[in-house]
Amino acid sequence: LHSFPTRRSSDLKSTQSAQATQATQTPKSTTIPTGTKTTSKTQQSKTQKTAEQQYQEQVNKAIEDATRQQLQFLGEREAALQSELPTTLQQVASPYEQQLPLLQQQLQQQQQLGVEQTESLKQQEQQALAQSRRSAEEQGLRAVQQFGGVGGSSAAQAAGELIGREALRTQGAIQTQRAAGIQNIQTQLRAIQGEYDANVARLQLQKQQAISQARLDFQKQLDAIKQARAEVGVTKANQTLQALADFACFIASNCFGKLS
């Protein structure tokens, strides 16, 4: 039989002490709670969305304020144009309308002059006829004195007939001259009336052309305001998109910085 050496109690105690010391020096493993990383990412995403929402609200308010001011200015300008239009049209038409009374006054003066000239010709006619009759009577009296009265010699009868024919010829010439003078006056008055009508038509045409041009200029300004309103809408949309793009770039740059 082999004999196995037995351990002494002192050796056993030394071995147990060494094992205890080794167990004390070994570090314990740390356990990470499940879901901690997911919670951190979720919180970060919520913070980003909140910041994005606040930024978008601020941008929208700034854009809305600027857009409202621009549209208000355009609206006030359009209202001013609408209110100024009647006055503008009146100012445009005024120079032509002011000439009409002058033309009417000139026409009336010419017409009055024609009436006076006609009356003067009639008076001259009456005076000339009266003078012709007096001359014929004087000649008849001289013929009577020279050749005898009615029923006298044939010479006296011939002289009386000659005086009568001459008086009729003279009176006819006087009446013809008066008629020609009146006809000439009437011709001149018709020409004056025609010139007046032409001038009035010309002024009316010029006035209508000026008014049409003023209305065209007015419509051009309204079209410019309409175009400006459309451009305000386009600018608003572009600014909103640009703000979103800038914010996305800002977020991307910050995230890239954190990852790097």
Summarize the structure in words.
This protein has helices at about 10-25, 35-145, 155-260. With about 260 residues, the chain is mostly helical. The chain starts with 8 loop residues before the first helix and ends with a helix. Residues about 1-30 and about 255-260 have low confidence and may be disordered.
Topology:
Layout: H1 9-25, H2 36-147, H3 154-259
Helix pairs in contact: 2-3
The gist of it:
The protein is mainly alpha-helical. It is built from three helices and no strands.
Element-level helix/strand string = HHH
Oligomer designation: single chain
Helix coverage percent: over 70%
Proportion of residues in extended strands:
under 5%
Rg: 62 Å
Biggest sheet: strands, sense, closure?
A: none
**Please, how many helices?**
3
Q: Give the distance, in angstroms, between the N- and C-terminal Cα atoms.
A: 75 Å
Mean pLDDT, as a whole number?
78
Uncertain runs with pLDDT below 50, 5 residues or more? Answer: 1-32, 256-260
Number of strands: 0
Shape: rod-shaped
Sheet/helix structural class: mainly alpha
